[in-house]
Amino acid sequence: MTVDLESGRRKLAWARVHMPIHAHLREQWAASQPFAGQTVAVCSHLEAKTGVFIETLAALGAQVVFTASEPRSTQDDVVAALLAQPGIHGYARWQADEAELERLHAAALDHAPSLILDDAAELTAAMLQSRPDLLPRLLGTCEQTTTGVQRLRAMAAQGLLGFPAYAVNDTPMKRYFDNIHGTGESALANLTLTANVLLAGKRLVVAGYGYCGQGVAEKARGWQARVLVTETDPRRALQAHMAGYEVAPMILAAAWGNIFITATGSKSVLRREHFEVMRDGALLANVGHFDVEIDTQALAELAQTQREVRDGITEYQLRDGRRLYLLAQGHLLNLTAPAAMGHPIEVMDQTFAMQIVAARHLLAHRTELTAGVHTVPDSVDKQVAQLKLITLGVDIDIATHEQFSFSQVWSRQEIKS
Ligand code: NAI
After folding, report:
1. Using a 6 Å cutoff on CB, does residue 374 contact ligand 1?
2. Residue of 126, 136, 131, 12 lying closest to 75 (CA atoms)
3. How far apart are the first and last CA of the chain?
4. Is any ligand 1 atom within 6 A of the Cβ of residue 213?
5. CA dist., res. 396 & res. 250, Å (int)
6. How many CA atoms lie less than 13 Å away from 254 in the CB half-sphere?
7. Which helix (H) or strand (E) holds 101?
8. Ligand 1 pocket test, candidate residues 176, 180, 264, most atoms within 8 A of CB
9. Distant-in-sequence, close-in-space partners of 168: CB < 8 Å, separation ≥ 6
């Protein structure tokens, strides 16, 4: 199949228009070239917003090598348009299977990156497992998603993390916007695009009331769906309850819902016992990083027939005649459904800007940082928030000298003086 280079270029051009923080960073640091001399590996969903992120790193002096964190979210035309640019190398292909994905990661690692800007710790894990000889050259990593931070912490707990890793996902500028608004909007947009069904009045079950689940639940309520939340964490369950959602165990939710969206970062959240009680016609989708939240093997075992009934929708007809519909084969719906484009561009402008500013900070402070998972300094987070406000043309107040001094005192007399 021939790849349409021009279409990739058009997608990049459209994304650039909506990524003003990146434009600002390119301008601000053009002269200082903070990534000069560094080989920066980007592992992420290879579409246009990631493309602008990669271009920006190259413009700031990096030799960039990219690869996919999930093959189905790769857009080959964008990849071609990126590879036509100087200072950028890459290994990603739509529809690569697991074995090919490993080879693509290996090819990216052959460039011996000094920094990894990762998604779900995919490339970091590949380096640990297959190229430990490259670890001495690695100065650090920045991680953009929840599952990745979880994996990094697991590596650290096993004593395997010999370098600093910034948990970019855990910054307010990332998770309050990308996970909540980005996942919320793009999950529902892709659900309705893929299935072309109405949400108003539907019984929609959200599994996991974390940042992503909160976004999905809130947006779905805005579309007048009736939303029920399932949780395993008592505080998150309580939060969902106080936000006005029904909360119930999945075994009850399974019999109630018309639409199910998993957003837990866990596995087998929807499994055999749930499929056994679901209504005919239920739609099943996942927005968590790995395609293990819906137990597709159990679904296949329960089914009498299995067929593609619409692009991105697999029908499983069970022996009792009920039909359950799996969207995007249980992969990330908002990134891998047939018309998927991932998060809205502005959200990724923010997330990738966080990756760039955090990576620059990590480089500049690498001698002070110990091995392990680190919180990104608040000053870095605020810097990106400030940039975002500038691009929006939004002004805010600055605390007065008196107010600053007030925040430093504790005695009642001084507070009242
Ligand atoms: P989070 O940790 O804030 O929330 C996950 C929630 O799921 C927690 O409240 C946890 O208690 C709950 N949970 C865990 N197991 C459960 C189970 N069996 N049943 C019900 N609830 C359960 O994580 P966050 O940030 O919401 O991310 C969730 C997943 O989404 C991760 O895999 C993350 O990497 C991925 N993600 C996907 C995005 C996308 O574009 N689709 C964007 C950002 C994150």
Report:
1. no
2. 12
3. 75
4. yes
5. 44
6. 15
7. helix 98-109
8. 264
9. 142, 143, 144, 174, 351, 354, 355, 358, 376
User: Residue with the nearest Cα to atom 4 of ligand 1?
Assistant: 210
Q: Give the residue among 79, 72, 76 at the shortest CA–CA distance from 96.
A: 72
- Whether 88 is in the pocket of ligand 1, judged by its Cβ within 6 Å, is no
CA distance 151 to 246: 31
pLDDT at 71 over 80: no
Q: Decide: 387 and 378 in contact? Cβ < 8 Å.
A: no
Q: How many CB atoms lie within 10 A of CB 229?
A: 25
The span from the CA of 64 to the CA of 57, in Å, is 7
Is residue 212 in contact with ligand 1, taking CB distance under 6 Å? yes
Q: Is the CB of 232 under 6 A from ligand 1?
A: yes
- 104 and 93 in contact (C-beta within 8 Å)? yes
Taking CA atoms, 121 is separated from 25, 142, 187, 347, in Å, by: 25, 9, 22, 21
CA of 402 to the centre of ligand 1 (A): 42
pLDDT tens for 353-394 read 999 999 999 999 999 999 999 999 999 999 999 999 999 999
Q: How far from the centroid of its chain's Cα atoms is residue 394's Cα?
A: 26
Q: Find the mean pLDDT for residues 59-74.
A: 94
Query: CB of 327 within 8 A of CB of 194?
Result: yes
Distance from Cα 43 to the centre of ligand 1, integer Å: 20
Name the pTM for this structure.
0.94
CA–CA dist 281, 317 (Å, integer): 10
> Does the beta carbon of 114 lie inside 6 Å of ligand 1?
no
Indicate if ligand 1 lies below 6 Å from the C-beta of 210: yes
Write the single-letter amino acid at 299: L
Q: How far apart are CA 81 and CA 9, in angstroms?
A: 6
Q: Would you say 34 and 61 are in contact if contact means Cβ atoms under 8 Å apart? A: yes
Q: Is 325 in the pocket of ligand 1 (CB under 6 A)?
A: no
